Protein: Glycogen synthase
Amino acid sequence: MTMRVLSVASEAVPLVKTGGLADVVGALPGAVAGEGVAITTLLPGFPSVLRAVRRAKEVHSWPSLLGVPARLLMGKLGEHPLLVLDAPGLYQRDGTPYCDMTGQDWPDNWRRFCALGRAAADVAGGAVVLPAKGKGAATALSFDLVHAHDWQAAMACAYIALAPYGDGPPLPSVLTIHNMAFQGQFGPEVFPQLGLPRTAWSMHGVEYYGGFGMLKAGLYCADAITTVSPTYAREIRDPRFGMGLEGLIEGRGDVVSGILNGIDSAIWNPEIDETIAATYSVRTLARRSANKRALEKAFGLDKDEGPLFIVVSRLTWQKGMDVLPDVLDRLVEMGGRLAVLGNGDALLEMRLRDAAARHPGRIGVRIGYDEALSHLMQAGGDAILVPSRFEPCGLTQLYALAYGCVPVVARTGGLADTVIDANPAALAAGVATGLQIDKVDAGCLVEVLGRAIALYRDAPTWKRIQRNGMACDFSWRASGRAYADLYRSLIA
Structure:
């Protein structure tokens, strides 16, 4: 019997993306389809989403959804059902899904994403009833379980538990934490506008240190909590990673688990990738050099047979990027080069540009994001730097492994779960796939860069590390099975 799951999120590729959350939400329906699970995804009606579903059919309307008129549209996300919450007063704005044009959070983000949660609870609980003529769609709106992602969707779990629709037992719900650092915290004055019973304002509901916490509410109310890697599921019980919620996680430890993210091998596959200069496989690594030459040209770097490091990242403290400018002079002295693609902290952007100006032909920097260029970087770079201070899962290092770009990572979260350090034992056993550091500071980063350069100069060893990484299976196959098993356990 097919399980029907409503997946609720603020973004999903290819419709709207600001980070890895979108990749996961977009891939999940296909990942579990072979396990007898049919996922319908519910997204906010951001401009890019509505442009992509112009032929979507209206299946429900709310005269007032938390004070705003809204309607529900049904379309497709690839081959899978899609629901779009079309509320122009909430989502039709310039800027990003979460911020205005100046980078400031929208002050009514609480309303924008509580409305998403309320709509999800209405759909899942049966408050949304389709007209009889929608026979084909009606079955898609009957669900066995709700899967919410991050703080933007966490209130779906809270509404289901605290303000259920109808007399039957509420549907089970799963909340996946993609990044505990973002929690959706607001002042207590918004509570009367949430449409929740007064009893919900407590530590056993939505109250969080005198304010309103969206992620906290979802974590308290969800029947199961997952993170995007097993190590991160353990780390968030520690104050260093729990961001104030470690006590709640520890108290709910019996329902917390980690399921590693996968990558879409139809998109991230060097054998068929049309965005790179030359396709290749683990058996034809020599063809990879054409991508290195193309990458050098794209960043204005000298043609060189020495190691070319890459960074594809948000330029933030979390990603360890504040340490990177401190080691670049040393990297160039050791014979390395660097290509950087990303944006974020203005001071970090300026320091990286300054480094590029000091070392023309050795360091190249592109501020912004370019999906096609990121593929070329993975295909042409020799090693990728991911020195994150915390990393729930990380997808960049998984893409790198698939493309034979050796990851140099911090030993945390999903980075620790997916990269095997090239220490003497791992090299002797022939299982190393990258390099790890235990501490994110300039000294450790210089040391690991030296290790990487020494290994690169040992061509047979470096190729073995590349091939080990390319042989890893980080497709959604195992992760999809794990999610399906979790769904079954909750429904049973």
Remarks:
- Residues 131-140 have pLDDT under 50 and may be disordered.
